[in-house]
Amino acid sequence: MAKKYKIREGPGSGARFTAESIIPRDAEKLPFSTKSYEFYFHRKKDKTAIYINTISYHPGQLEIPLGKLEETIKYIKDYYLSRPSA
């Protein structure tokens, strides 16, 4: 896989406080991550969302190539949205 097609992290910085978690408890972890970020999917009736969780404090930037985002959306549609909602 070409490096330009991967999800990449920028360099971190030195902030003191982490953000409060807004990820619902019943969100499902997607099967990919980076060393500092995890990705979650949540579906409740007609509302769907993707959450990005910081697993090691890294107040930097994240690059997600459009092709990777399209691949992620297709995966979610094929796997998660084909199941009945809660």
Structural overview:
The longest helix has 15 residues, at 66-80. The protein has 86 residues and is an alpha+beta fold. It has one domain (25-86). It contains one helix and five strands. The strands form two sheets. It has a three-stranded antiparallel β-sheet, with no helix packed on it. The chain has a two-stranded antiparallel sheet with strand order 1-5. The mean pLDDT is 80. The termini are far apart.
> What series of H and E elements makes up the topology?
EEEEEH
- DSSP, total strands: 5
Helix/sheet category: alpha+beta
Count of individual helical segments: 1
What spatial form do the alpha-carbon principal axes imply?
flat
Tell me the fraction of residues in β-strands, as a range.
25-35%
List the uncertain runs.
none
Count the domains. 1
Q: What Rg is obtained from the alpha carbons, in whole angstroms?
A: 14 Å
Q: Spatial order of the strands in the main sheet?
A: 2-3-4
Described by strand count, sense and barrel closure, the largest sheet is:
3 strands, antiparallel
State mean pLDDT (0 to 100 scale). 80
The first-to-last residue Cα distance is 35 Å
Helix content: 10-25%
